Amino acid sequence: MSASDATHLERAGLLVGAELVSFIELEALPVTGVDPDTFWNGLSSLIHDLTPRNVELVEVRASLQAAIDVWHRERAGQPHDPGQYRAFLEDIGYLVPDGAPFEIETEHVDPEIRSVAGPQLVVPVTNARY
To answer: Binning pLDDT at 50, 70 and 90, where does residue 64 land?
Structure first.
């Protein structure tokens, strides 16, 4: 696909669907005050920085899935042994030990997320209408 393809436009070294470019530049960015060049350069940087790691993680996932598939094929027709299965998953690194306790800071987080109890993305239980 080339940048001259009418359905895609070049932005900061990326080929982006024309409809997405239109939405970002004409609808989304104007209400944020973010300059289009700043946005596209930032997105391009993120994509180029994170793509190699994403490729690695997809390969790890494929390797884990292949090992799990083999494990199940080798035991087809046998009764399931949860303890043995858990040990296998730990051996291949699919399950890892719990980490140390930690806390998450909520500085600079919207109040709806930081302090309002309830399923904010559905309907909060504190909403009297429901």
So the answer is: very high
Q: Which tokens sit at 12?
A: 């900061």
What pTM did the predictor assign? 0.61
Q: 44: helix, coil or strand?
A: helix
Average the pLDDT over 73-77 and give the result: 97
Nearest to 71 by CA among 86, 90, 85: 85
Rounded CA-CA distance 114/104 in Å is 10
Q: Residue 62: what pLDDT?
A: 98
CA dist 120 and 117 (Å) reads 8
List all residues 6 or more positions away from 24 whose beta carbon is below 8 Å from its beta carbon.
36, 39
